[in-house]
């Protein structure tokens, strides 16, 4: 039984004191890396830590519309960590015993309303978590609660520590670094495909799921993320000084800024240092700060944290990055080319995260298997279903509930019309040999558990839950098809628009040619008794995704646009978690599946 500490409340936010850590890179006795943290989430004194533009536009609110009764559902456990905005504890589901992390953000008020910047930050964080769905590269959001004093975000629990802590243990081999960088880039590419810029990509914001050497890596903390479509330009300075891109300092930036920060992370993983470590100004500032440190504490080592941002920012903007020193000569030309391409100062020259996933340095990680999404560069839509099942489920998880329900209705129409279903009906029949029309949840879970995938029990449950749109504990054929179908192909069929029109008319119960709040509520909640799906924020959250003109209704054009599957949402962005044939994991994850090769029975599409 866990101790039940009193409900935690983080202190009010203020500027954060940077903390330090040390690292000895290969071939160096003196070099070190510091653990850089966002200074109040901002790179410049006075700049906002929250999404300013959105806060200015958003209406004043008194509450978020999340669920209530956190304490009825979860028992609070030990403290996991804290940041400038939140404290994070273990939380145990009282009915299932499953362990989660709960991130508690104390509410800040201006009079009777939530302080706008705080409200925008929390709302954005929750919306981004929802947009990422059940991505295996993100610690997924299980539920959001609130009461009078705080919002509680229940997240997947990551127990393997931060990437930063592992970097400190010692230098990574090139292959190990490449594996980690690939997971970072997958998270970034998935966000970018959803029109989300992260603005705080750094080793501290990636946690390992478990202690295994090859543990999955998950992104946490979307506090600085902002919705930003390709072509949008942002102007507020936000990020963590050591990782911030030059164009962010110049206050005109977009999605490529995240690629730069991922490049700094890759550089650190490969060398243990920052690329400007031998810039003369930086060395001088560091030596002065070290001498000052040693004078006061008798021990040098923390000086870099007190180096002025001015010195650091000048280095970021103009320092010559040197790739001739140890250990670069020992690294492959592909590794060097990869990092150099990410650290180009002109953001237009930088490859996108999705393009980098196809870079030869990452592609060679799983050259024998076409299924892991890191290499090959395309064509996964045509791969056997068993190889891409987990990727398809993750992609479907990013669609949001309204789109998922609408696609299930389109799938039902296709079934009625006798349209061919890309082999999905055959794969379903194999799981439902008796032809009952329904696959029990446990049968599908066993499929994932024993079918040659490396997934924890928690990952299996959350991946499968989205199949079950009506939460009746089984998966029917329309739910199966809607989750696994390659909708980009269906969209090209001439019947597409008429199918979508029929579903729109079904949702638009009063025939007004637009879907109202009440109609949306009926679609989103009526078929399910699941409390998490029927929160007051369910309709506003759906409208925030779909209602492009902000009139509070969903028009047919908005509905059609919502159902469009963008080319950017490629299966390659998601990990397949397929265990290589004959492959074996080094250990079984906590609560995870027994490792082993073997083909998946769902396959054959
Ligand atoms: N899902 C999780 N599982 C385990 N630990 C977590 C999880 N999420 C967060 N933590 C821990 O809690 C700490 C604080 O979380 P987080 O960084 O999200 O807070 P924050 O206040 O938003 O941070 P910041 O100050 O960077 O804005 C993290 O450093 C991490 O150690």
From TrEMBL:
<keyword id="KW-0067">ATP-binding</keyword>
<feature type="region of interest" description="Disordered">
    <location>
        <begin position="582"/>
        <end position="605"/>
    </location>
</feature>
<dbReference type="InterPro" id="IPR000719">
    <property type="entry name" value="Prot_kinase_dom"/>
</dbReference>
<keyword id="KW-0723">Serine/threonine-protein kinase</keyword>
<dbReference type="InterPro" id="IPR050205">
    <property type="entry name" value="CDPK_Ser/Thr_kinases"/>
</dbReference>
<dbReference type="Pfam" id="PF00069">
    <property type="entry name" value="Pkinase"/>
</dbReference>
<feature type="region of interest" description="Disordered">
    <location>
        <begin position="1"/>
        <end position="54"/>
    </location>
</feature>
<dbReference type="InterPro" id="IPR017441">
    <property type="entry name" value="Protein_kinase_ATP_BS"/>
</dbReference>
<dbReference type="InterPro" id="IPR011992">
    <property type="entry name" value="EF-hand-dom_pair"/>
</dbReference>
<dbReference type="GO" id="GO:0005524">
    <property type="term" value="F:ATP binding"/>
</dbReference>
<protein>
    <submittedName>
        <fullName>Calcium-dependent kinase-like</fullName>
    </submittedName>
</protein>
<feature type="compositionally biased region" description="Low complexity">
    <location>
        <begin position="9"/>
        <end position="19"/>
    </location>
</feature>
<keyword id="KW-0677">Repeat</keyword>
<feature type="domain" description="EF-hand">
    <location>
        <begin position="495"/>
        <end position="530"/>
    </location>
</feature>
<dbReference type="Pfam" id="PF13499">
    <property type="entry name" value="EF-hand_7"/>
</dbReference>
<keyword id="KW-0547">Nucleotide-binding</keyword>
<keyword id="KW-0106">Calcium</keyword>
<feature type="compositionally biased region" description="Low complexity">
    <location>
        <begin position="38"/>
        <end position="54"/>
    </location>
</feature>
<feature type="domain" description="Protein kinase">
    <location>
        <begin position="74"/>
        <end position="362"/>
    </location>
</feature>
<dbReference type="Pfam" id="PF13202">
    <property type="entry name" value="EF-hand_5"/>
</dbReference>
<dbReference type="InterPro" id="IPR011009">
    <property type="entry name" value="Kinase-like_dom_sf"/>
</dbReference>
<dbReference type="GO" id="GO:0005509">
    <property type="term" value="F:calcium ion binding"/>
</dbReference>
<feature type="binding site">
    <location>
        <position position="103"/>
    </location>
    <ligand>
        <name>ATP</name>
    </ligand>
</feature>
<dbReference type="InterPro" id="IPR002048">
    <property type="entry name" value="EF_hand_dom"/>
</dbReference>
<dbReference type="InterPro" id="IPR018247">
    <property type="entry name" value="EF_Hand_1_Ca_BS"/>
</dbReference>
<feature type="domain" description="EF-hand">
    <location>
        <begin position="455"/>
        <end position="490"/>
    </location>
</feature>
<keyword id="KW-0418">Kinase</keyword>
<dbReference type="GO" id="GO:0004674">
    <property type="term" value="F:protein serine/threonine kinase activity"/>
</dbReference>
<feature type="compositionally biased region" description="Gly residues">
    <location>
        <begin position="593"/>
        <end position="605"/>
    </location>
</feature>
<feature type="domain" description="EF-hand">
    <location>
        <begin position="541"/>
        <end position="569"/>
    </location>
</feature>
<keyword id="KW-0808">Transferase</keyword>
């Amino acid at each position: 039984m866990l101790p039940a500490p009193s409900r935690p409340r983080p202190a009010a936010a203020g500027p954060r004191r940077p903390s330090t850590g040390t690292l000895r890179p290969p071939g160096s006795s003196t070099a070190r890396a510091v653990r850089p943290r966002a200074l109040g989430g901002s790179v410049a004194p006075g700049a906002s830590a929250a999404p300013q533009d959105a806060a200015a536009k958003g209406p004043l609110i008194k509450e978020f519309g999340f669920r209530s009764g956190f304490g009825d559902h979860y028992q609070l456990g030990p403290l996991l960590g804290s940041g400038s905005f939140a404290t994070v504890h273990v939380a145990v589901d009282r009915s299932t015993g499953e362990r989660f992390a709960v991130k508690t953000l104390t509410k800040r008020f201006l009079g009777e309303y939530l302080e706008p910047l705080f409200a925008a930050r929390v709302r954005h964080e929750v919306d981004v978590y929802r947009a990422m769905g059940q991505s295996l590269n993100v610690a997924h959001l299980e539920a959001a609660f609130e009461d009078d004093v705080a919002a509680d975000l229940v997240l997947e629990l990551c127990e393997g520590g931060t990437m930063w802590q592992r970097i400190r243990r010692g230098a990574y081999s090139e292959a190990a670094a490449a594996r980690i960088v690939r997971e970072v880039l997958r998270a970034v590419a998935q966000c970018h495909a959803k029109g989300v810029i992260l603005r705080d990509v750094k080793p501290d914001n990636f946690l390992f799921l478990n202690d295994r050497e090859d543990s999955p890596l998950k992104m946490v903390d979307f506090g600085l993320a902002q919705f930003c479509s390709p072509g949008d330009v942002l102007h507020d300075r936000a990020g963590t000084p050591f990782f911030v891109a030059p164009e962010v300092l110049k206050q005109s930036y977009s999605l490529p800024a995240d690629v730069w920060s991922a490049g700094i992370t890759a550089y650190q993983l490969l060398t243990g240092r920052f690329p400007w470590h031998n810039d003369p100004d930086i060395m001088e500032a560091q030596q002065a700060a070290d001498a000052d440190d040693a004078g006061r504490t008798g021990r040098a080592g923390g000086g870099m944290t007190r180096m002025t941002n001015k010195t650091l920012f000048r280095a970021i903007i103009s320092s010559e990055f040197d790739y001739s020193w140890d250990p670069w000569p020992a690294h492959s030309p592909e590794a060097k080319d990869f990092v150099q391409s990410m650290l180009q100062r002109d953001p237009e020259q930088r490859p996108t995260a999705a393009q980098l996933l196809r870079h030869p340095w990452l592609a060679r990680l799983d050259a024998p298997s076409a299924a892991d999404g890191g290499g090959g560069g395309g064509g996964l839509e045509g791969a056997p279903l068993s190889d891409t099942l987990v990727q398809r489920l993750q992609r479907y998880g990013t669609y949001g509930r309204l789109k998922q329900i609408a696609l299930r209705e389109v799938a039902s129409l296709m079934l009625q019309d006798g349209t061919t279903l890309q082999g999905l009906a055959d794969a379903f029949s194999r799981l439902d040999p008796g032809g009952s029309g329904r696959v029990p949840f446990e049968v599908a879970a066993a499929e994932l558990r024993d079918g040659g995938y490396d997934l924890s029990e928690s990952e299996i449950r959350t991946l499968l839950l989205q199949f079950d749109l009506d939460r009746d504990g089984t998966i029917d054929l329309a739910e199966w098809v809607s989750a696994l179908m390659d909708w980009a192909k269906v969209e090209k069929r001439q019947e597409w628009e008429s199918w979508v029109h029929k579903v729109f008319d079904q949702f638009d119960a009063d025939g007004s040619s637009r879907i109202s709040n009440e109609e949306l509520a009926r679609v989103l909640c009526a078929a399910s008794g699941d409390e998490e799906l029927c929160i007051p924020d369910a309709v506003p959250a759906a409208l925030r995704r779909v209602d492009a003109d902000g009139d509070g209704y969903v028009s047919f054009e908005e509905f059609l646009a919502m159902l469009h599957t963008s080319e950017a949402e490629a299966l390659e962005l998601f990990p397949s978690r397929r265990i290589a044939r004959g492959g074996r994991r080094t250990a079984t994850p906590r609560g995870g599946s027994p490792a082993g090769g073997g083909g998946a029975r769902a396959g054959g599409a």
